[in-house]
Amino acid sequence: MSLAEPMPLEALAAIEHLLTDEERMIRDSVRRFVREKFLPRAARLFEEEEFPMDLIPQIAEMGLLGASLEGYGCAGMGAVAYGLALQELEYGDSGLRSFASVQGSLCMYPIHRFGSEEQKERLLPKMARGELIGCFGLTEPDAGSDPGAMKTYAQRDGNEWVLNGSKMWITNAPFAHLAVVWAKVKDKELGGAESIRGFIVERDAKGFETPTVHGKMSLRASTTGEIVLTDCRVPDANVLPKAKGLGGPLSCLNQARFGIAWAALGAAKACYESTVQYARTRIVFGKPIASKQLIQAQLVEMASEIVKGEILSYHFARLKEQDKITPQQVSLAKKNNVGWALQVARMARGILGGNGILLEYPAIRHMLNLESVYTYEGTNEVHTLILGRALTGCDAF
To answer: pTM of the full predicted structure?
Structure first.
């Protein structure tokens, strides 16, 4: 049976002409890197719970660490270029993209925005080059969606701070050189009331441990750990001077959520494209299953939602470049795109049938990864309530 060439998703979305030459160049460079250097071993890395440490220098060389930041050796990419780059990384694997997201949005960003000039000059250039790797310590075993309920405390002792507490589900923690840790303090400026401050905890700090989390069935190609702080002493010079209150860590999460909204579509595209290819060659009852109405209906829904997500991300990215995007719009993009990416992965796995559970095909790997992406950087439910509060004026938290 002769088959016509399938229409690519990029043609259906039709935003190619809206991209600058630089944006296309960045996207295409990351695309080549992922397909040549990562995808040939993606299944093995997932199976063996291994992050490809050897790729860090190349990721840094492409300007993907702290990509959206200005100065200090950072690339200063616009929001669209940054989103496209993350999308290509996640086309490979959520674990690959998570590494870059955490390094840039959750570690370098707070130092860049809230840090002292000495902290910026000492740390950011090395982090941009991948010589120093960071992790972000906010989530705790009993304080996930409610970070204000954290139990990690810091107490001043002379020119040092003593930190006690633990953080959970920390990407990069086991091999990170430093952690941006958020802790409660008694704030003299607030009359002794509690406030939340950010601390740069370096690997050689006594009382700083980062045990690895094992047994994950998601994000297996990402290294996840805990942060355990036991009378951990941090010099006053390592406190982020401009971060006070919960707004500090939440602003970091907002940066990460924006990138995730773009990135999740990369996983969806990987699932969709591999499934179209499979459906065109899988013969059932004498015909490719791509010719069956039920299969076409599913593929059309998958393509439609990916394209809508792409257009949504592009529009919000242009707003971000003009400093006009709102946290509610970021929540909408993260909730919509991750939710549909997960649904696309599930549909792809179904179309693949029994083959869908094999790592030979990307669907099951992306589906399992997206179960985590659906939860982290604000659960789907939290983003629903953020939007609900905005749309009704009533707080359901």
So the answer is: 0.95
Per-residue pLDDT, 194: 87
- Closest-CA residue to 98 (of 171, 180, 176): 171
Per-residue CA distances from 337 to 58, 183, 250, 374, 384 (Å): 28, 31, 20, 10, 13
pLDDT in tens, 341-355: 999 999 999 999 999
Catalytic residues: 377
pLDDT in tens, 32-50: 999 999 999 999 999 999 9
Identify whether the C-beta of residue 92 lies closer than 8 Å to the C-beta of residue 34: yes
Which one of 3.30.2090.10, 2.40.50.100, 3.30.420.40, 1.10.540.10 gives the CATH number of domain 9-128?
1.10.540.10
How far apart CA 370 and CA 151 sit, in angstroms, is 29
Which regions of the chain carry the CATH code 1.20.140.10? 253-392
Helices (H) and strands (E) in the chain, counts: 13, 10
Which residue, among 297, 300, 305, has the nearest Cα to 338 in the 3D structure?
Answer: 305
Nearest 5 degrees, angle CA 18-CA 344-CA 52?
Answer: 80
**What's residue 190's pLDDT?**
57
State both tokens at 33: 């890197």
> Quick one: which of 259, 258, 228 has its CA closest to 163?
228
Residue 96 and residue 38 in contact, taking contact as beta carbons nearer than 8 Å: yes
